[in-house]
Amino acid sequence: MDPDLILAAQGVRYRYPGAGGDALAGVSLTARRGELVAVLGPNGSGKTTLLRVALGALVPAAGNAVVSGRPATAWTRRELARLVGVVPQREETVFPQRVREAVLLGRYPHLSMFGAERPVDHEAVNRALAQCDAAHLETRWLSTLSGGEHQRVRVARALAQEPVLLVLDEPTMSLDLRHEMELFELVRGLADRSRLAVVLVTHHVNLAARFADRVLLLDAGRPAGEGTPGAVLTRETVERVFAWPVAIETYQGAPQMIPLRRRPPV
Amino acid sequence: MKWAGLTALAVLAFGLAVLLGPAHVPVADLWRSPIVRDLRLPRAVLAFLVGGSLGVAGASLQALVRNPLADPYLLGLSGGASLGAVAAIALHVTGPWALPLAAFLGALVAMGLVYRLGLVGGAELDPRVLVLAGVAVGAFAAAISTAIVSLSEATALRNAFLWLWGGLSGANWETVLVLCLYAPLPLAVLYAAARPLDLLALGEEPAGYLGVDVRALKRWVYVAASLLTAAAVAVSGVIGFVGLIVPHIGRLVWGHRHRALLPVAFLGGGTLLSLADTVARVAVAPRELPVGIVTALVGVPVFALLLRRWTRT
Q1: CA separation for the pair B207, B198 (Å, rounded)
Q2: What pLDDT does A102 receive?
Q3: Alpha-carbon distance A161 to B210, whole Å?
Q4: How many domains does chain B have?
Q5: Could you tell me which residues come within 8 angstroms of residue B170 by beta carbon, excluding any fewer than 6 positions away?
Q6: Chain A CB contacts of B248 below 8 Å
Q7: How far apart are CA B193 and CA B188, in angstroms?
Q8: Mean per-residue pLDDT over chain B, rounded
Q9: Residue pair A108/B212 in contact by the 8 Å Cβ criterion
Q10: pLDDT tens, B116-131?
Q11: B215 to chain A: nearest residue by CA?
Q12: Does residue B88 surpass a pLDDT of 90?
């Protein structure tokens, strides 16, 4: 078996209870160490559902999801949290928290039931904060952070888990240009320097094309293409999946999509 | 510093509960006096245990339903317990354990009912549904209790009324022993859940990705907090506001990490109820106020202040 293969979901089919159709059918997703894989697709195309199945939170009706050589559902949540760090799309903030406390939550899967945090836990938190360029924020309240800072803290929390796979679900939603680019640079760096396998769900076709090694394009729960950005993001495929006319240009070897106006300016 | 202050306050409250009372006992005779040994001491211990249990149950339930304004009675337990007790009083069931047992059974039935209603789709304990189910079950039980009370004769009515507002006058070493044997298990379960409860505040899916078995956590916390509350109600009646205010103040001073907050809630709850019970015994001596009235008289203004502060930030 390929020791670098961290995540392998094959032929996954899933239908939400009571739903009329499959949310996913015949979808496969793999991620290796040092690799950044982007999952693309319109709203409701099954991106988040795919993550849930891949991480054992949902049990597929067909196909399977394997994390580090074992079915995702065979790991306990605790064991899985030591392998996979997730930055979910949404979370609640019922009780206010400081940055360091928030990142320390990432150490939970490494702690014993009654034991206190050990020095190694605080070192892991320091490393995670440093990696995300968030060390200077550690005493701040989460509610006082900017959107970009908050996302970096959430990535740091996932890194504090010391995972081999990092999964991010639309982490740059509602971030401005600079913070968005900083986040893409950060996760690319984690794949390159820390040899993490990274799965990134995003709406940003162009940034995915420039940063990802491979992309998976979903269309209403079906795979519309999987492979290098250049092979998947052709004009025909993108127009069909996103239901909008586009032109594809190449910039530094990566395909870049330009949405066309239906009525060109005169 | 905070801890030293709280501990000192707890010791002071306990000391006052032993020292003060309608009968004057000289300090020199304190350890020989049967009044202290058989009445004040068990009552002080019971007040501390009940208050501490309510504090811990409240703090845990707030984390479980992810609402800082939840309290131990939110889930319909007080309604169920009251119905059990009122029914026992009206039916003239006698014996030292009749009332606590009936209250305990009533609380368990309410708890089972709410739990069943909260299992939406057969699996999930949805916190919003839990709260609604608790309110509904509580209201239903309260309606039946009131019907029973309105049909019963005067003495039973007075007893039921006093019970509904809480009181520790039934305290003796036997009750203390039963609670001492009973409470540690749910308290330990809740303390073991302290860290996962921190994570649950992020929401169920994020907590799961951080390694929490959310479904098991919700069940354990729900059952442990309910059993703790049921026991407290059974021995002392419905004592409001302790489980709401104490965790709230604890959160303001200690923050939201439950490994610190739960012990704080225990000490703080015990302190508050000890003080309240001392006031209840001494204020209108030789008669006694229901302790729930004291906690409400202190609790409501404090709570109003907290609420203002909370909504401002």
Answers
A1: 9
A2: 94
A3: 8
A4: 1
A5: B99, B100, B235, B236
A6: none
A7: 9
A8: 87
A9: yes
A10: 887 765 556 777 888 8
A11: A77
A12: no
- For residue B308, the domain's CATH number is 1.10.3470.10
Q: What is the pLDDT of residue A135?
A: 94
Q: Domains in chain A, please, with CATH?
A: 5-93+163-259 (3.40.50.300)
User: Mean pLDDT, chain A, as a whole number?
Assistant: 94
User: For the complex shown, is ipTM > 0.90?
Assistant: yes
Nearest CA in chain A to B200: A92
Most B CBs within 10 A among A52, A90, A98, A105, hence the mutation to make, goes to: A105
Q: How many CB atoms lie within 10 A of CB A248?
A: 18
**B14-60 pLDDT, tens per residue?**
999 998 888 888 877 777 888 888 889 999 999 999 999 999 999 99
Which of B200, B209, B257, B311 is the best residue to mutate to test the A interface, defined by the most A CB atoms within 10 Å of its own CB?
A: B209
CB contact under 8 A, B211 and A114: no
Which residue from B208, B175, B21, B203 is spatially nearest to A81, judged by alpha carbons?
B208
The answer to whether B258 touches A98, Cβ cutoff 8 Å, is no
Report the gap between the CA of A215 and the closest CA in chain B (Å).
Answer: 23
Give the C-alpha distances (Å, rounded to integers) separating B133 from A70, A209, B74, B130, B264.
40, 50, 9, 5, 29
Give burial (CB, 10 Å; 0-12/13-18/19+) of A19: exposed
Confidence at residue B115, expressed as pLDDT on a 0 to 100 scale: 83
Query: Residue B37: its pLDDT value, please?
Result: 83
**Contact residues, chain A, for B203 at CB < 8 Å:** 88, 90-92
Contact B157/A at CB under 8 A: no
Does the pLDDT of residue B183 top 90, yes or no? Answer: yes
Which domain range does residue B179 map to?
A: 2-312
**Angle, in degrees to the nearest 10, between helices A177-193 and A147-160:** 20
- Residues of chain A neighbouring B208 (CB-CB closer than 8 A): 57, 77
Residues of chain A with confidence (pLDDT) below 50: none
Distance CA(B146)–CA(B141), nearest Å, equals: 9
- Predicted confidence at residue B168, as pLDDT, reads 87
Here the tokens at position B85 are 């007790």
Secondary-structure breakdown of chain A: helix, strand, coil percentages, each rounded to the nearest 5: 35, 25, 35
B100 vs B240: CA distance, rounded Å: 17
